Amino acid sequence: MVAIRIDELTKQFEAFTALAKLSLEVEQEEFVTLLGPSGCGKTTLLKLISGFLDPTEGTIHINGKDVTRTPPEARDTALCFQSYALFPHLTVRENLEFGPRQKRISAHDRKARVDDVAEKLSLHAQMDKLPNQLSGGQQQRVSLGRALVMRPSVILFDEPLSNLDAKLRDQVRIEIRRIQKEYGLTAIYVTHDQNEALAMSDRVVVLNGGRVEQIDTPEALYHAPKTRFVADFIGDANVFSGTVQGEVQPGLWRVETAMGTYDVATSTPPKEKDVDLCWRPESAVLGDAGHTGKVINRAFQGHFTDLMIETKGVSYRVQSRATSAQEGDTVNISIPPEQLILLERTA
Amino acid sequence: MTMSKLNKVLMISLLVICTLWLVVPFTMAVLWSLVDPSQPWTADKLLPPAMSFYRWIDMWQNSSLKSALFTSYALAPSAAVLCLLLAAPTAFALGRFKFPGREVAKTLCLLPLVVPPFITSIFFSSVLFQLGFTGWRFGAILFAHAVLFLPYAIRILTVSFEQVRQEHIDAARDLGASHWARFRVAYLPALKPGIFAALLIVFIQSIEEFAIAFIVGSPSIVTIPTLLFSALGQDFVRPNAAVLSLILVVPNVILMLVLEWLLKSANPTLSSGKG
Ligand SMILES: Nc1ncnc2c1ncn2[C@@H]1O[C@H](COP(=O)(O)OP(=O)(O)OP(=O)(O)O)[C@@H](O)[C@H]1O
Ligand SMILES: [Mg+2]
Known about the structure:
The structure holds 2 protein chains of 2 kinds. By secondary structure, chain A is α+β, with helices and mostly antiparallel strands.
């Protein structure tokens, strides 16, 4: 069942379009991440869903109900703020109880809910402390708890981990995912960290300049990016412009690039002659076949070695698990046809 | 000279100056108020030759001190509250909304303070008279005080409103809070110090204000400052003036200490988390 349906949502700030005709459906209990560079409209979309902004055009449905003009206090969403936004003069317990109080939930139920959440987030020892007496990670958990006690249909996160240090970040990330599954919550999660997005999400929405670039599972985004932006943004990618020569075998297309000719295995024939050709640094095979290149930089990274290689004046990146190539060596590189990805040329 | 020595010298000079500034006038006022009328305190004596509470008792029984006290202490808190209510909308707008010319507007709000108070008072009271605001003199003074001290209250409350964090308002709203609940949880804690400070300043200003109280109020309404000036003006009875000025200052000091304590206890911290 669809939990959130967003149709052609547009948000303009005066002449500036922050979000353009965005459509998205989120399934019940799905964890969807909004990923994109700074200023691409992630927070704007989250504020539109939670009701803090009114869309210029388009509609939002939550559980089949049109909430486009419903104010935030009446929406069945709960927001986890980047800066936590805990009420500083209230104890952890009072912070957690604030929401249920507003909903006039009986004292008994309120206590049950708060205790349940405190238990799940291991906060019971902190219940009588003020927020400024807690560590960053604990504050983060209170903020999550305050949203959870509302038992919302949809929980929204705006870069909840950005104030935590790297180690804690992994831990809280796993915790958020666990809680989301345990409560069966539908979640929309904003981040500009691709690793976070890939690790946590059922699906990722890649945004760029207020437009959707691609909506897909993390695996599909990585292995089958649709645009150059997605290929570049998710993981490392070598992207070259090329021209389609034609289909040499069924499902195998020949593409001419500055570095040489490649055969690309694809089930969807290219729409245009001008394409971008993309491959991941780790899909290159160093061996006897393929075109030659000169190693211009080598960096040992432990479980792989990072090489910068130059062919015909074009440099690109190759990651290899076992190579003895040194700087200045000449190597042969081939890329299996099924590892090559054709991207639509975008203006 | 070493640093610590320099510090010591500076500390001591500061202490001396503070003593001269605060303790000496206060002691003088206390001494003068205790001078017994049987023997005048002449300049050649260090202490008054005879001391008693005669002046205090006399002032209490034979002057309009009681009614002046009552008027002043009814006037000041009412003016403070009224002033706060009048200042709140402007301060809210100045503190919460971004609009072109906001900084200019903030400065303009302070402008009335550069005019000498007596001038403002004379013209303000003439406006009051022209508006026919003369039937209820106490009300006229109250209104005048509330309006006159608006710049202080607006300025202080503007800063307070700027301290309110939008994310606290949003968080409360997101959790389903009504307007009133939002005000209590997000605004009030940040506003509290400002509210106290504004009340205190207007209270003290109103207690000490002479010009308006004199021009609008006399002769039917007497406040402590007008009584004080008449004690000084008519026959320059310095001991009587000393009694009055002590009466004027002591409650203020107590009030300030109480508020200081309130401020400290009311406000554990305003910030939470980082960012
Ligand atoms: N109230 C506003 N008025 C005008 N422009 C705005 C407003 N809010 C956001 N914008 C603009 O809309 C664009 C998208 O902003 P948004 O906050 O959604 O970005 P974001 O993707 O969350 O970025 P970040 O990763 O930096 O948080 C930005 O260019 C921003 O300048
Ligand atoms: Mg943002």
